[in-house]
Sequence to fold (775 residues):
Amino acid sequence: MADPQAPSSAATAIAGVEAGLAAQGYIASRQIATAVYLSQAIDKPILVEGPAGVGKTELAKAIAAWRGLKMIRLQCYEGLDEAKALYEWKYAKQLLYTQILKDKLGEVLGGAQTLHAALAQLHDFGDVFFSKEFVEPRPLLQALLEPNGCVLLIDEIDKSDAEFESLLLEILSDFQVTIPELGSIAAAKPPTVILTSNSERNLGDALKRRCLHLHIGFPEQKLEERIVESRVPGISQTLRRQLVAFIHDIRSLDLKKQPSVSETIDWARVLVLLQAAELGHEVVKDTLNVLLKYESDIEVALPQVTTFVAKAQRQHVF
Amino acid sequence: MRENLHRFLRAARGAGVHVSPAESIDAMRAVATVGFADRMVLRDSLLLTLAKSEDEKKALGACFDLFFAHADPTRQEADDEAQQDATQNEAQAAPQSARDGVDQTNAELGPLAQMLLARNTADISAAIANASSAVGLSDIRYFTQRGLFSSRMLEAMGIQRLRDDLDALTESNPAQAERLQGALDGLRDTVRDTVAQALALYGREEAENLRHEILRNAQLSRIEPRQVAAMRALIRQIARRLRERYSKPRKRQRRGHLDVRRTIRRNAAWGSVPFLTAWKRRHRDRPKIVALCDVSGSVARVSDFFLLLIHSLHDVVSDVRSFAFSGHLIEVSEILEQKSAEEAMAEIMDKVGFGSSDYGSSLVDFEKQFMASVTPQTTVIMLGDARSNNLDPRADILKRISERAKRVVWLNPEGRMTWGWGDSEMPRYQTFCNVVRPCATAQQLERAVSDIVSAYQ
Fold:
């Protein structure tokens, strides 16, 4: 346990994850990098929780791009069931084949002398129709069948029904599924599983227990500046700082929907498009709708704009 | 190392983080991968594997900081080395003859006295660590055990021998004895700190459980002001538990109605020959509650907590209207929803609270303005002691309410013994209620609300 090599190698590995994700334009905090490293090291899915737009889904994309793996995405919604998430029988094909083989049926059964022998032959025949050829893999099964491994993103798991969670349990702990007619199908190479949740409903303990639990909140000022830097390359340093400082002030207000990282990036892009070199109240007032998505939120924020802009401009001094 | 981690897992449970054996195995595997050297990486890994929510992460982070502030192996080693260097330097600096003298007298003393006189902090902390595992310090649960564990630890370290030494020294070498006494006082402090620390780490959960148990069974109307905040927290916890229990989707099969669409889909694999049937499901009614709370002086506190509970339950009880009355009745749903608990209670009390209760005129108010809110799906909850100051109770209105509603439940903060005595009109109201029960403690409150909500499942 106290392997003297382990500490340094773990720290380098985590730094490696951070650099790898950064190369894909995803600036990860240390916790995120540790989670990604651990999920690989001990083969565990990561359950990512946090407000909308902080980069939960982006994380999965970045991991896939960094490792050069295919990303398979399962978007959850109310009413999502086994047939859409896991597999379905290609019943049309089954029917078609039955029709075509109907003529052959006599030949197949013709050789049988007794009823028992005929039944035995029919039995083999039935198994053919419930074989792999007739299974239509849906995202979860696809992920397990991928020979080189993949990144499986199960997006917004909190939107699905509680029953669906139970369906996931076998996949998350053993990376295998059981199809009653075929038996268990285990992953050729365990996929990296990322589950995201906006905490719309509480997830079951059984699900949580099988995952590393990562919470991504709004990033700290420094980190957010780096994210903007990586995502919006054309932005000047002054504007970047002021913009991030301004958004942090906005987040302190009592809003219906707090602006998240994706809004920060959008706003930065807009400001670059408008060729703003610095934050000014006119520009801010005109573009506040990029940042805030509710009329009532804009009304709350408007009176504060002048103060916040002034405060953000002072930031630049230091 | 492993031992250390086990102790940390126990401490984590103490901090209120739910750690199952499977999770501790995960934590072990994670730690085996990342090692102990990098403190921040270790902290992140434990947080990722053990904590399952934001709150747990906070609690566990605090627990980690507390735990590894003292029990950190690597730092201790570094300290040891520094300490040894220091003692060596000191020893070299001290005149040879004086050291010889000290050594000679010390040879007759017990090991603890020698250790204290040598002021070797590394040895002392090692001895403390040994003593704490010898007496099972991590089993400490209640603050009342502090003294016991301190003295046990000192005993394990050999305080008896030290006392003898001290007596002997006072005769032969008073200066030395004084030094030893000083060192002993220091040791007592350190041991006391160690025990306090252990209590903070391992004892939190038990102590909290005990306090909660007492609080749950305390009379709501007699809660002391300093306990109100704790009681509010408890009520919220109860609400959360009820919510978890009852917020599962309310689906029941309705046999006899075939769900054609699902049946066809389910049987598609057999050429739509319906081997498996699917039946239509019906979502059960969501609870509808109308709560009428007496907030007159005598029962104000209880109704306070009750309103808080009902409103913390919003996920389950989506349709709830609350009314408060003493002399007359007003609707308070909005106040409760929009303001924080403290502000809302203050405002309600301001508007209708603390008067002398008049059930009759309050019921008249309700019938006049809000009778329409009672439907055949509604559970009407009355909360009060039914003491109407000898005014007309207007039980006929309650009868009409009960005819419209699904159920009428009366929760009375007084015990059954007192019903009907003095100005209590309980027996007259009782005839029109489906359920009547005394409700004086948090526990009874929880059971009552649980029953009400479960009737809709």
Remarks:
- The interface with chain B takes residues 1-3, 6-8, 10-11, 14, 30-31, 34-35, 37-38, 41-42, 44, 49, 83, 89, 91, 94-95, 98, 161-162, 202, 205, 208-209, 212-215 of chain A (CB under 8 Å).
- Chain A has 15 helices and nine strands.
